[in-house]
């Protein structure tokens, strides 16, 4: 978008050069913590705080020893399984609900959809305690069910996202299929779903990330269990405590750094696969406004 | 119970041609509709079946949970025995008696007032710069987005070390240019700026929303303004800001709600260990509520705290909506 840049005057070129410098400067600011993290993860304990971006001594052993220091693999397996369940369930259930709102006419549709949107405003704190009690009364505390159970019923933002997508599909497509005798389920499963894969992927990736990062749920539902049963965020929080001097450790922060780096990698991998989906998904949020 | 106002904020409540609630029909129902009513009824049933998962979830996990929460907030709930006895307004009275409620609420509001404007300005600055760049903007957008992909635990564990008052990289860097950095994580006055700093590092989500909004501003507007002799700053305030006021408003609301519920960073940096002697200025409302609920298992009091937060969020959002009507400009088709 050539906003304000017209022709190739010297002034415009200087302006563009400055722009690049400023943007690279911000880029370095955003990247610095990553580089620091990578570097600290390779240092021996006493050099972690020397703040050199290239370690004086490179200690690859950190990456081997972290697996003995912390049940990192177990945390990652738990988190991956929970995230897949959480994301898969919410993507399918939200699509179903969204299709209901987009395709069919029924009394109360506008009001109900208004309520869907309104629930986005509800602070999690209000439902945190009663949801815990609901799971407790269902006798599923100590299982993984509370970590993804509510995802069976769709989630407001994802319903909104999928509905927008379904509304953008040409109506003729559904009319033609209906004339061919397709059932309502057929319209959903054989026409709407295959076409909505891009937005389905957005929903899946968003929820996967949200689940991977969800510290509070872990604290509520898994904290009392064994350390091996922790999720990634709960585990790293535990590692921050056990290695810090205040938590009785010897300040082996290099291991915390290795662990922090390792649990970030799956997210970076996810981003490299679905970069467009993530950014488009976030941008769509703004379109509501 | 559920305030439906946000639906009108987001402007997406219009649900197509058959929006019900348009009760004031000008003409009487044509008789044809009666004959079609069985097909219409079948369609309605199908629709309800498709949205049934959400209806069940809403009744149990949202509406049901809210009613449940309200009941608990008026009782003294014992988790061990799963028994509760009515406690009247005891829990609500405690909101005023317990000094930590006021302290944590004050901390949270203070943080929100500091964080939200900074996030908006910083995100908007980045978005405008990227929009100006044109080709190559995609690269920077990806780069800037990386912090947003970093799990909060990883961010917190890095910043815990970067912000260390004596050996941390941030203070070392400041020392190099002759500034003596504060004890970020210990000095009560610097606790909240520390968390603001971490929040700003992850500002790219907001930036992406602004970037999308900027793309919808017609270039001709800038061309005409430039012909009229308006400089870049004038163009920014006279064209860009009004044209993306919808996105600004959306981000302000979303970021405010998020700021009032801050938990992860504050918990990880200050309240991880139950023995932690962290400064009281780091006690955020979300953290205190969590402690009351799942450390003290005082569900009644925690629920009262949750309702206070809900009311505060509603009031603040309502004020923002009122205020926005004065300046938010929605383009033609909205």
From TrEMBL, chain A:
<keyword id="KW-1133">Transmembrane helix</keyword>
<dbReference type="InterPro" id="IPR035906">
    <property type="entry name" value="MetI-like_sf"/>
</dbReference>
<feature type="domain" description="ABC transmembrane type-1">
    <location>
        <begin position="76"/>
        <end position="274"/>
    </location>
</feature>
<feature type="transmembrane region" description="Helical">
    <location>
        <begin position="75"/>
        <end position="99"/>
    </location>
</feature>
<feature type="transmembrane region" description="Helical">
    <location>
        <begin position="141"/>
        <end position="161"/>
    </location>
</feature>
<feature type="transmembrane region" description="Helical">
    <location>
        <begin position="253"/>
        <end position="271"/>
    </location>
</feature>
<keyword id="KW-0812">Transmembrane</keyword>
<comment type="similarity">
    <text>Belongs to the binding-protein-dependent transport system permease family.</text>
</comment>
<keyword id="KW-0813">Transport</keyword>
<feature type="transmembrane region" description="Helical">
    <location>
        <begin position="182"/>
        <end position="206"/>
    </location>
</feature>
<keyword id="KW-0472">Membrane</keyword>
<dbReference type="InterPro" id="IPR000515">
    <property type="entry name" value="MetI-like"/>
</dbReference>
<feature type="transmembrane region" description="Helical">
    <location>
        <begin position="111"/>
        <end position="135"/>
    </location>
</feature>
<feature type="transmembrane region" description="Helical">
    <location>
        <begin position="18"/>
        <end position="38"/>
    </location>
</feature>
<protein>
    <submittedName>
        <fullName>Carbohydrate ABC transporter membrane protein 2, CUT1 family</fullName>
    </submittedName>
</protein>
<keyword id="KW-1003">Cell membrane</keyword>
<dbReference type="Pfam" id="PF00528">
    <property type="entry name" value="BPD_transp_1"/>
</dbReference>
């Amino acid at each position: 978008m050539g906003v304000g840049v017209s022709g190739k005057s010297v002034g415009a070129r200087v302006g563009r050069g400055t722009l690049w410098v400023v943007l690279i400067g911000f880029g370095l600011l955003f990247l610095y913590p990553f580089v620091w993290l990578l570097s600290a993860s390779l240092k021996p304990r006493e050099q972690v705080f020397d703040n050199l971006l290239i370690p004086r001594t490179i200690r690859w052993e950190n990456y081997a020893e972290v697996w003995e220091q912390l049940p990192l693999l177990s945390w990652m397996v738990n988190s991956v399984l929970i995230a897949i369940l959480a994301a898969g369930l919410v993507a399918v259930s939200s699509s179903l609900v969204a299709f209901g709102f987009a395709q069919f006419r029924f009394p109360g549709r506008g009001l109900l959809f208004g309520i869907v949107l309104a629930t986005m405003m509800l602070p999690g704190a209000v439902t945190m305690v009663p949801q815990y009690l609901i799971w407790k009364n269902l006798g599923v505390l100590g299982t993984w069910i509370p970590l993804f159970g509510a995802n069976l019923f769709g989630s407001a933002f994802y319903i909104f996202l999928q509905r927008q997508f379904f509304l953008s599909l040409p109506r003729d497509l559904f009319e033609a299929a209906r004339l061919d005798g397709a059932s309502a389920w057929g319209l959903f499963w054989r026409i709407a779903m295959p076409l909505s894969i891009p937005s389905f992927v957005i929903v899946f990736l968003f929820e996967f990330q949200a689940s991977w990062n969800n510290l509070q749920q872990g604290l509520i539902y898994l904290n009392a269990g064994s350390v091996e049963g922790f999720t990634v965020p709960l585990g790293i929080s535990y590692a921050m405590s056990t290695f810090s001097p205040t938590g009785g450790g010897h300040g082996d922060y290099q291991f915390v750094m290795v662990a922090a780096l390792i649990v970030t990698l799956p997210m970076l991998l996810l981003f490299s696969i679905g970069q467009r989906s993530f950014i488009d998904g976030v941008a769509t949020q703004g379109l509501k406004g | 119970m559920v305030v439906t106002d946000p639906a009108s904020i987001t402007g997406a409540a219009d649900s197509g041609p058959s929006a019900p609630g348009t009760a004031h029909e000008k003409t009487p129902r044509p008789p044809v509709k009666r004959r079609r009513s069985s097909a219409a009824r079948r369609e309605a049933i199908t629709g309800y079946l498709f949205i049934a998962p959400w209806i069940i979830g809403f009744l149990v996990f949202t509406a049901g949970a809210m009613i449940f929460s309200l009941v608990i907030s008026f009782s003294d709930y014992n988790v061990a025995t799963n028994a509760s006895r009515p406690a009247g307004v005891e829990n609500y009275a405690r909101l005023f008696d317990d000094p930590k409620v006021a302290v944590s609420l004050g901390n949270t509001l203070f943080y929100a007032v500091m964080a939200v404007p900074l996030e908006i300005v910083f995100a908007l600055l980045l978005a405008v710069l990227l929009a100006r760049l044109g080709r190559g903007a995609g690269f920077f957008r990806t780069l800037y987005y990386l912090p947003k992909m970093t799990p909060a635990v990883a961010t917190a564990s890095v910043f815990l070390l970067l912000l260390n008052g004596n050996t941390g990289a941030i203070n070392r860097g400041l020392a190099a240019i002759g500034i003596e950095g504060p004890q970020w994580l210990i000095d009560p006055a610097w606790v909240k700026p520390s968390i603001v700093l971490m929040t700003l590092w992850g500002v790219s989500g907001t930036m992406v929303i602004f970037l999308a909004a900027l793309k919808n501003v017609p270039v001709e507007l800038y061309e005409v303004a430039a012909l009229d002799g308006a400089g870049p700053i004038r163009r920014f305030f006279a064209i860009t800001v009004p044209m993306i006021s919808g996105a600004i408003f959306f981000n302000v609301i979303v970021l405010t709600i998020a700021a009032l519920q801050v938990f992860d960073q504050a918990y990880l940096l200050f309240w991880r260990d139950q023995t932690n002697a962290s400064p009281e200025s780091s006690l955020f409302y979300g953290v205190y509520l969590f402690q009351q609920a799942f450390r003290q298992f005082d569900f009644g009091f925690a629920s009262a705290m949750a309702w206070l937060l809900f009311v505060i969020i509603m009031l603040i959002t309502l004020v923002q909506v009122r205020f926005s009507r004065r300046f938010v400009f929605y383009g033609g088709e909205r």
